Amino acid sequence: MPVHPYFTAVFSGEGEPFAEGPWDTSGLAVEDTAVDGPHGPVPVRAYRPEGELGGAILWAHGGGFRHGDLDMPEGHVVAAELARRAQALVVSVDYRLADGETTLYPVPIDDVHAAWTWLAGLGELADLPIGIGGASAGGALAASAALRARDVGPRPADALLLAYPFAHYPNPSLDWALYPEMAEVPARFGPEDVEGMVRNYVGRISDVPADALPGAARLDGLPATRVLVSEYDDLRASGELLARQLAEVGVPVETWVAPGMTHGHLNHLPRLPEIDESITFLAKGLNG
User: Fold this and answer.
1) Which terminus of the chain is less hemmed in, N or C, by CB atoms within 10 Å?
2) Does residue 238 lie within any of the structural domains?
3) pTM for the full model?
């Protein structure tokens, strides 16, 4: 299908802007707190559904490593809906953002892993599955934190839930068949954009550490993974390559291409069926 007209309207200024305002959190207990981390306290927001828990998910929003917070829809709305749909305690982590100078890799990963360490240590979750997930740059951080959890604990993740992850540098090329439709996409990630993200996050574009963008890391031993990609997204190729890499080393992986969607579509309210289905696809990965 072509690029969804919703996104053409949004980026032209003629449609609904990025979702703002309150989101219905009825049936959820929402609490802001902070956990200890190697660089100081890490703010987190917990979403607890009513009834017996089916597990837990640590969630990391996107924003190119330099933008984003707990209130953006990709953080707040997605976390709330994951809590509802997976009947899970969802903890959204407000990791420190890279600034290209004083806050660089591995600080954001350290913050996400600190939140993971706290969540994994909750006694009520000892016998329940715990997943880790994130969107875009947050997907890279989630995968990197899952690698660290695999290697140093305190317990490995039981599921990895990735939405349009940015997992490689250089970014892989898209299939040529997508190029005519990609010309209609209002927001693109060109080579300079990708290079700028990596410089701001790592401080350089050479000798990039393997776990900074985890497509270059050893991936065996990661848990069953769900990879959501947007149909019209320059970073789609990274998510699909990561899925192939995971499958090659024996990690169970499921991929879903959100039709007509552009990068960051989870940063919009799930009123469109495709956005709603994207969240459901991720939620099913916890117990899937």
Assistant:
1) N
2) yes
3) 0.96
